[in-house]
Amino acid sequence: MASLTYWLLMGAGLLVLGSSCTSTTSDDDTPSQPPAAKLPAAATSMVVVPGGRFSMGSNDPAFPDASPVHEVRVKSFLLDEHEVTNAEFAAFVASTHYVTVAEQKPSAEEFPGVPAAQLVAGSAVFSKPEQPASLADPGQWWRYVAGANWRHPLGPGSSIVGHDNDPVVQVCYDDALAYARWAGKRLPTEAEWECAARAGKSTTAAYYWGEDLAPGGHWKANIFQGDFPAGNTRADGFVGVAPVKSFPPNSLGVYDMEGNVWEWCNDYYRPDYYQTSPAANPPGPPDSYDPEEPGLVKRVQRGGSFLCSDQYCIRYKAGSRGKGEVRSASNNLGFRCAKDVE
């Protein structure tokens, strides 16, 4: 997904073109991991993802940035079995007193031209339209909500109390990276993420679990069913985020690699990277470029979210890619961590 902050702050009613800011992360973008921190007792269990070769990407014409399909080899690694939860992120904040980007007041330098009265801490929140909406105008269902952050995902009237096992959302790339470093982990590369999602299945399958969207009438992921964006039938049992492990894991024991919340990867985003990607342990391109928003620094996002549907966003499908500006967050965006095998 593209960044949402700038035009929502401007109140333009359009899908946000993003800020002109640059990342505040380190210039060293290799997915290295620091010495392990003392983790909370409830820290996410990790699954060993065996190394090997697989076919990465998609030939679906709906995903031009995911072609060509190419053979990739990755070494074995560890991956969180599910997305980082509210409880786990809360332990990180309690230990470090970290303040997420969404909790910080935007600056005039970061968002030139935005009226001063609108420069308030907050983030992007999905808001169901009350009437039929044109799919060409995502500004009809995205709003910048003052006070929206990881503790209050939908704004000040919402809370994560009682939702310890929901994936943490409203975290930008910088926030996810800070958590990973504290936990003695790192963010997965895009190749590692797809390797784990495929779990040895054929690249020709439409979905990571197979050819059928709901085999035997059973939903395999938390996505949007019905008339997007206003008519969610809740056929899979959820309207918004689902607690982790609400759907069956894949054969590796990894949960929610499709739908629920988008997940940050370490790689910079470029739509042409697969044309030159190395065959062994690709780390992603050396810089970011998105021709739709060339002034923004973007990283890859994977897996889709509870807002993906067969009518609008279908990027929960196998091999598809997402993207996001590094300091933008939303209530359908989270992450999980990886780690080298020692």
From TrEMBL:
Superkingdom of the source species: Bacteria
Descriptive protein name: Formylglycine-generating enzyme family protein
Keyword Signal part of the UniProt annotation: yes
Annotated keywords: Signal
Gene3D superfamilies per record: paralog of FGE (formylglycine-generating enzyme)
Signal peptide as annotated in the record: 1-25
PANTHER family (UniProt xref): FORMYLGLYCINE-GENERATING ENZYME, SULFATASE MODIFYING FACTOR 1, 2
Pfam families: FGE-sulfatase
Matches recorded under SUPFAM superfamilies: C-type lectin-like
Transmembrane segments: none
InterPro entries: CTDL_fold, Sulfatase_Mod_Factor_Kinase, SUMF_dom, SUMF_sf
Domain Sulfatase-modifying factor enzyme-like per the UniProt entry, residue ranges: 43-339
